[in-house]
Structures are given as structure tokens and as C-alpha cells.
Amino acid sequence: GAVVSQHPSWVICKSGTSVKIECRSLDFQATTMFWYRQFPKQSLMLMATSNEGSKATYEQGVEKDKFLINHASLTLSTLTVTSAHPEDSSFYICSARARVTGELFFGEGSRLTVL
Amino acid sequence: SQKIEQNSEALNIQEGKTATLTCNYTNYSPAYLQWYRQDPGRGPVFLLLIRENEKEKRKERLKVTFDTTLKQSLFHITASQPADSATYLCALSNFGNEKLTFGTGTRLTIIP
């Protein structure tokens, strides 16, 4: 089946640094990608919707200047957590909607730990 | 505001029995309801999608019902196996693959 790859799968960084997480659709083109955040024992919360070639749409309460999203191609979206703080530590998951079939596939997630 | 609740945070079921998970929602009129499986430290994996005009959908040992009057979906796993142990999430959307709103999840453990 279709695969969505996230990299890195886990990252530890110091407070104040920026971290970039990549989301790639490996064998299909994705017109739309979604970024979610999941805290321990909680559900996935949508952060933003990313459309190829246009600006991302952020959910209420999500700071767009802190969580920079770039969807530069039909197979790649990136999420950059700028000036990370310990409260940004979370599991970040992307999903991609296939351009041809409209099916939705989720990545394996990226665990961010900010010290 | 929209709210999605799954019946319990954790559920233990004896192997071979049917596991039934509940998803209730308020302040929402979804066109689609989906169920996902999530293993620890992994992303969700799609299981089943049911539309608002469908009452029931089956896939192998899985069965999903959707009652838009009660605003509830039931997710059944028959002949449960230890490998079915995972967290199960329900998710609602207005259109097939637009923004999904996820429930809180139920951690299911099948006891051998």
C-alpha cells in the first residue's frame, strides 16, 4: 500500500533551537497534507492543513510563526518547530491525501523531545 | 463545541470474545466516520470508513455501525486475538478525506 514516511522518527533538541520534520509520500502524489500533534494518552489534534504550492491553513490556537509549514512539492511537506520549548515536546504525525484516489495515509510519526 | 467521546479509556477482553468499542459525538453532523488503529509510538492505521447514510459496514472480523440519531458508532472485533491489542480511534469528517476530528481513543487489551 501507499507509504508516508516521516523523518526523523525521533529527535532530541535543546530549548531555543529549531527542528524540521519531513513528511514524504513515497509512491503517490499528495495534494494535501495534514499535520497533527499528539500528547501522551491524548488524541491527535490537527495543527494545520498544507496544500502544495500555497500557504498552510492553521487551526485555531496554533501559532503559524512557531510552526512553519512548507509544502514545496506534491510529495513533500515540512514542519519546522522554531525556538522549541519543553512544552513543544510531543508526537507529531502527518497524513497525506493521494491526488488520484483521494485516499488518506498517515505517517509513522516523529517524537520530539525538547530539553 | 464539537466533542467526540470514546466509551472508556481502557478495555480488557478475553481472547475469543467480541470486543465492542463506542464512539459518541455531540455538536457535529459528520458525513463520514472512520476507525483507526494506533500502536504505541506509531501513526494511526486506517481500518474502516462508514458514511452517514450507511447503517453498518463489515471487513473480515471487524464491524462498524453508525447511528446518526443517537450520534453514536459501535466498533466490534469478533473472535478477538491478542494481536488486536492496540488503541482504537474514531474520527469524524464532513467530507471523505477532509479534516479529521479524532476521538480520545480506547486502549484495548485482549487477554490470552
Describe this structure in words.
- The complex is a heterodimer of chains A (about 120) and B (about 110).
- Chain A is an all-beta fold.
- In chain A, about 0% of the residues lie in helices and about 55% in strands.
- The radius of gyration of chain A is 13 Å and the shape is globular.
- The mean pLDDT of chain A is about 90.
- Chain B is an all-beta fold and about 110 residues long.
- In chain B, the strands form two sheets. In chain B, strands 2, 4, 5, 9, 10 and 11 form a six-stranded mixed β-sheet that branches.
- Chain B is globular and about 40 Å long.
- The model of chain B has no long low-confidence stretch (mean pLDDT about 90).
- Classes of the chains: A mainly beta (about 120), B mainly beta (about 110).
- At the A-B interface, strand 5, strand 9 and strand 10 of A face strand 10 of B.
Q: Which features does this protein show?
A:
heterodimer; A: 115 residues; mainly beta; 7-stranded mixed beta sheet; B: 112 residues; 6-stranded mixed beta sheet; 5-stranded antiparallel beta sheet; 11 strands; 0% helix; globular
Overall SS class of chain A:
mainly beta
Helix percentage range of chain B: under 10%
Which sheet architecture does the biggest sheet of chain B show? Answer: 6 strands, mixed
Number of E-state strands of chain B: 11
Distance between the termini of chain B: 40 Å
Distance between the termini of chain A: 37 Å
Mean pLDDT of chain A: 92
The shape of chain A is globular
Task: Give the secondary structure arrangement, pairings included.
The complex is a heterodimer of chains A (115) and B (112).
Chain A (H helix, E strand, L loop, with lengths): L3 E4 L2 E4 L5 E7 L4 E9 L6 E7 L5 E2 L8 E7 L2 E6 L8 E9 L5 E3 L3 E5 L1
Parallel strand pairs in A: 2-11
Antiparallel strand pairs in A: 1-3, 3-8, 4-5, 4-9, 5-6, 7-8, 9-10, 9-11
Chain B lengths: L2 E4 L3 E5 L4 E8 L5 E7 L6 E7 L4 E4 L2 E6 L4 E6 L8 E8 L7 E2 L3 E6 L1
Parallel strand pairs in B: 2-11
Antiparallel strand pairs in B: 1-3, 3-8, 4-5, 4-9, 6-7, 7-8, 9-10, 9-11
